[in-house]
Write a structure and sequence with these properties.
about 180 residues, alpha+beta, Peptide Deformylase, about 35% strand, Peptide_deformylase_sf, EC 3.5.1.88, metal-binding
Length: about 180
């Protein structure tokens, strides 16, 4: 299934919709969705992905911080599948840092995000879980959570001059 799964691009209606809560944790389609999200994220060198990005308007995200070609300085973190997530800000400090998105290729932007969040979610079996995320993993979660609310990272940019071509971004981090 994931070999042919396309990542929806900016302008696709599904990226601007509120995602629906998952209430059936036992369906084959739900578990295939999770497998597809993991596969597409890995194949795309992403550090996170949300179901709307592959055209499924359900509240499912995967957070998987790790160093990649797109995020060479990312810390290592095993993939976490989060279903029906919600979060609480634990550190209201807003930090601006660079983000990109598989649904908005070729562009990076400085985006303000909270430094620390506590996330409550269900795992793929429907069990209640919590995790506290700091810094880059917290940023990844907030980015993916936005997808569930019909937002993309460019909606959070404070100044249009903070948006750059990805080629320019890589020049800046190499300097």
């Amino acid at each position: 299934m994931s070999e042919k799964t396309e990542i929806k691009q900016l302008g696709a209606d599904v990226l601007r919709q509120w995602a629906c809560a998952v209430d059936d944790f036992s369906s084959v389609e739900f578990h295939e969705l999770i497998d597809t999200l993991l596969d597409v994220m890995r194949q795309s060198n992403g550090v996170g992905i949300a179901a709307p990005q592959i055209g499924v308007s359900l509240q499912v995200v995967v957070i998987a911080s790790r160093p990649t070609a797109r995020y060479p300085l990312a810390p290592e973190m095993a993939p976490v599948v989060m279903v029906n997530p919600r979060h609480e800000v634990l550190d209201a400090t807003l930090i601006k840092d660079w983000e990109g998105c598989l649904s908005v290729p070729g562009i990076r932007a400085l985006v303000p995000r909270h430094r620390t969040v506590k996330v409550a979610y269900q795992d793929k079996e429907g069990q209640d879980c919590q995790i506290v995320l700091h810094d880059f993993p917290a940023r990844v979660f907030q980015h993916e959570f936005d997808h569930l609310q019909g937002l993309i990272y460019l909606d959070r940019v404070q100044d249009n001059r903070d948006i750059v071509a990805e080629s320019e971004f890589f020049k800046r981090i190499a300097a």
